[in-house]
């Protein structure tokens, strides 16, 4: 979905570069180099400037994946596999039965039968019908095709999706012009002078620019898988604090100066998040963005890694396995604390997106509003009102761009499967090492479940292409090795 030309514009950049994208047949950079000058030029990309750390339009990445997919189908057929591809075919239901997994598709009178079905339905956004001319419940609910006038536009959110939403609006009112020295300014169309965009969030913090670091990641020394497994097996009581203690050791070892500056040894899993954001909260978001852009660009030129940024980046994946084992209170502490730090760090955005933001600010179009913990949102027919204390902000068009929310079994759009899973008693689908569903017995091992929003409860950082590749590989192994379907959520067998 993020890479299709139906739902995205050429302006929207991937925040993953060739160096990180797990190749299928060719690497992304290899594929890019095999494209013609003219073809790349359509995306504003120059052949002679291609490199492995470059962030490019998401639609171009989508073209690569489509090409690789078609090649995959050809090769599978050559090897004797029977492959059928049904594009634009809406699956309406699934059910595991004694005869096999039944799969119903729109326009098909009877269900097809499979030994194994894989659900990889991706992001779930509100339907286009839920949008009006003045309110979009997500940037992916009809905004790309909608005509947005030069009016007051409010965007709930200040990170990736919010920036996509802002781009979708501004390209209707002008264009970004790039100078030789990577400077960008925004040329506003005549007649669009009234366009104003306000990005808003509780903290009013903008994402930082993607930073240089060694890839593949260097291993951690203290927060190893063994150390994490050991803490999980020691029980939920105090788990978050114990793992935070390990994190502190790891960070101190990686970056003693930063640890001292932050007084890391005085912090806990809650105050660490406050300390992480403290400086940014006190500064103007655009000034901060400008300074941060300068810093990361200089580091990229010098191939300099900032140790504390890099260690936090590697820690998010190492720490994630504890999430399903946290008790309710610690899970909440994790969600409002460490998870935000990790997401802020790994969801850094391309420098180009920061330059565009700064250009929009320079043009007097965009601003950021800090809402704080208490605000009210009132969606009216003509306008949306946001109230913060005594202040009421009114917007002619409003876009809710807060990103994907975790979903539960009750949200599944497949009624028969939903009923089967609900009879198993779990409110989130429970999957094994190979991502096949574990319960109830009737579905066990017969449906592989890789639909991201439903996995997010236990794996909050599951989004991203490298994780997609890992999930795909785990499912494929499961099919070919028919390994015993061990429980993904329990590294230690308790009986
Ligand atoms: C706006 C946006 C930008 C992103 N940018 C990046 C990025 O730059 N780098 C990165 O690593 N990750 C990015 N991500 C994260 C993203 O989750 C993954 O990169 C990846 O797209 C997830 O793949 P997927 O196959 O699980 O889901 P999707 O890519 O969403 O694909 C799901 C597919 O299932 C189809 N489908 C859904 N329901 C049905 C049904 N009932 N019947 C038939 N078909 C169905 C959909 O039409 C869609 O084609 C981004 C996410 C978003 C939302």
List the helices and strands and how they pair.
Elements: H1 28-33, H2 37-41, H3 58-78, E1 91-97, E2 100-105, E3 112-114, E4 117-119, E5 135-136, E6 152-156, H4 160-170, E7 174-178, E8 184-188, E9 196-201, H5 225-233, H6 239-254, H7 256-262, H8 271-282, H9 285-302, H10 307-319, H11 328-336, H12 338-346, H13 351-362, E10 366-370, E11 376-379, E12 384-388, E13 391-395, E14 397-400, H14 415-423, E15 447-449, H15 452-455, H16 465-481
Helix pairs in contact: 5-6, 6-7, 6-10, 9-13, 10-12
Describe the structure.
- It is a single chain.
- The protein folds into three domains: 18-125 and 407-481, FAD/NAD(P)-binding domain (3-Layer(bba) Sandwich); 128-207 and 350-400, FAD/NAD(P)-binding domain (3-Layer(bba) Sandwich); 225-346, no CATH class.
- By secondary structure, it is of the alpha/beta class.
- The strands form five sheets. The protein has a five-stranded parallel beta sheet with strand order 5-14-6-9-10. It has a three-stranded antiparallel beta sheet with strand order 1-2-3. Strands 11-12-13 form a three-stranded antiparallel beta sheet, with no helix packed on it.
- The two termini are 42 Å apart.
- The chain is built from 16 helices and 15 strands.
- The radius of gyration is 24 Å and the shape is globular.
- The structure holds flavin-adenine dinucleotide (FAD).
């Amino acid at each position: 979905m993020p890479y299709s030309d139906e739902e995205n514009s050429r302006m929207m950049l991937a925040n993953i570069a060739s160096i990180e994208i797990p190749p299928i047949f060719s690497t992304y950079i290899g594929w890019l180099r095999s494209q013609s000058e003219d073809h790349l030029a359509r995306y504003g990309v120059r052949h002679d400037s291609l490199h492995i750390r470059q962030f490019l339009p998401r639609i171009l990445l989508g073209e690569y994946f489509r090409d690789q997919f078609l090649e995959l189908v050809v090769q599978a057929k050559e090897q004797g596999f029977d492959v059928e591809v049904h594009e634009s075919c809406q699956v309406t239901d699934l059910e595991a039965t004694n005869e096999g997994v039944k799969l119903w598709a729109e326009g098909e009178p009877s269900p097809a039968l499979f030994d194994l079905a894989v659900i990889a339905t991706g992001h779930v956004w509100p339907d286009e019908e839920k949008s009006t001319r003045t309110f979009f419940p997500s940037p992916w609910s009809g905004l790309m095709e909608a005509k947005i006038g030069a009016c007051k536009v409010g965007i709930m959110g200040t990170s990736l999706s919010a920036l996509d939403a802002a781009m979708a609006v501004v390209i209707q009112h002008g264009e970004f012009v790039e100078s030789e020295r990577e400077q960008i300014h925004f040329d506003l169309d005549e007649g669009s002078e009234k366009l104003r965009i306000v990005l808003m969030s509780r903290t009013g913090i903008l994402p930082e620019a993607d930073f240089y670091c060694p890839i593949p990641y260097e291993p951690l020394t203290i927060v190893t898988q063994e150390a994490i497994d050991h803490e999980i097996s020691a029980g939920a009581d105090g788990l978050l604090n114990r793992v935070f203690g390990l994190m502190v050791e790891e960070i101190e070892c990686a970056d003693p100066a930063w640890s001292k500056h932050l007084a890391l040894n005085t912090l806990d899993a809650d105050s660490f998040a406050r300390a992480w954001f403290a400086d940014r909260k006190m500064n103007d978001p655009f000034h901060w963005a400008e300074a941060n852009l300068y810093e990361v660009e200089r580091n990229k030129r010098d191939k300099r890694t900032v140790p504390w940024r890099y260690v936090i980046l590697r820690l998010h994946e190492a720490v994630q396995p504890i999430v399903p084992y946290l008790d309710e209170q610690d899970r909440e502490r994790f969600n409002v604390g460490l998870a935000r730090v990790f997401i802020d760090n790994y969801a850094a955005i391309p420098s180009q997106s920061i330059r565009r933001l700064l250009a929009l600010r320079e043009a007097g179009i965009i601003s950021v509003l800090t809402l704080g913990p208490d605000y009210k949102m009132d969606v009216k027919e003509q306008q949306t009102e946001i109230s913060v204390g005594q202040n009421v902000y009114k917007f002619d068009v409003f876009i809710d761009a807060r990103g994907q929310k975790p979903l539960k079994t009750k949200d599944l759009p497949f009624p028969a499967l939903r009923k089967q899973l609900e009879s198993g008693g779990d409110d989130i689908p429970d999957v094994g090492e190979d991502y096949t569903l574990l319960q109830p017995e009737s579905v066990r091992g017969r449906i592989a479940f890789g639909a991201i929003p439903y996995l997010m409860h236990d794996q909050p950082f599951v989004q991203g292409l490298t994780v997609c590749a890992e999930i795909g590989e785990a499912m494929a192994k499961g099919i070919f090795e028919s390994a015993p379907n061990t429980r993904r959520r329990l590294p230690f067998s308790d009986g």
